[in-house]
Amino acid sequence: IPFLPASNIFFKVGFVIAERVLYLSALAICILFTTAIHRSPHSLKFLQSPLSFLVISLLAARTITRNTDWATDETLFGSGTRSHPLNAKLHFDYAKTMADKGTLDSEAVAMHHYEMALSTNIRWPGYCEPAFNLANLHHRNGNVESAIKYWQMALELNPNHISSMINLGNAFAGMGDMQAEYRLLQKALEVNPRHTHALSNMGVWLGTMNRIEEAEQMFQYALSIDPTFKLANDRYKEWLVTKARRKSLEGKMEFVYVVPKG
């Protein structure tokens, strides 16, 4: 009874109960069915065996067909989107599974279901992951304008989504808008001052602006939080090499002088 409001039997709610949650209630139904069979009037006793056989056969057939749905993540989430088309989470899971396959056809399916997840997102306020993943997929395929559109949509759904800020900042930097990237990194660090990826990107930005000491501080701070963070380690090493080259170049320039005329 407690599951009836979310059962999708009387009206569509766009919510799916995990099958494992229904096992206990299914056991109660089996007990009730068995009790009803044994307490049936004497005139209906002849129906006990055929009725039991029919019910068991139907349930066995359903189990066999359902096992094919559980064969892989693709078949499981695919069957879920067909039976519950209003569930954003199912569309998202199916899209992610298809995107991970990495083929053009599977990515096209993934894009469609990310869009479906966004169109059914009314029941999931703040659920920005479909827009974020769709943006990443567009960016991976070289469609930067669409990627920017969906990262911005992700931030509309969840203004504190740091990964969207970082990726959107990278896209703007690639287009030459360094100030837009700086503003997004600043906001990301306001949300989480210890976010190592944002700190690392800010270090790169400061280095590009020739703010050497601040850049080094950012890298060192990121690595003090997580010394194993590979991105920060790699970028800090690159930064140290660049810094050494600049110092070497500055040292050589000290010996350059202009010979006065006359």
Could you give the topology of this structure?
Blueprint: H1 23-38, H2 48-69, H3 73-83, H4 88-101, H5 104-119, H6 129-140, H7 144-157, H8 162-174, H9 178-191, H10 196-208, H11 212-225, H12 230-253
Helix pairs in contact: 3-4, 4-5, 5-6, 6-7, 7-8, 8-9, 9-10, 10-11, 10-12, 11-12
Q: What percent of residues adopt helix (DSSP H or I)?
A: 55-70%
| Radius of gyration over C-alpha positions, nearest whole angstrom | 30 Å
DSSP strand (E) fraction? under 5%
Mean pLDDT across the residues is: 82
Q: Count of DSSP helices?
A: 12
Low-confidence stretches: 252-262
The strand count comes to 0
Given the C-alpha coordinates, what overall shape results?
elongated
What is the structural class? Answer: mainly alpha
Report how far the terminal alpha carbons are from each other: 104 Å
Task: Give keywords.
mainly alpha; 262 residues
Molecular structure report:
With about 260 residues, the protein is mainly alpha-helical. The protein is built from twelve helices and no strands. The longest helix is centred in the C-terminal third of the chain and has 24 residues, at about 230-255. The radius of gyration is 30 Å and the shape is elongated. The protein starts with about 20 loop residues before the first helix and ends in a 9-residue tail after the last helix. The model is unreliable at about 250-260 (pLDDT under 50).
In short:
By secondary structure, the chain is mainly α.
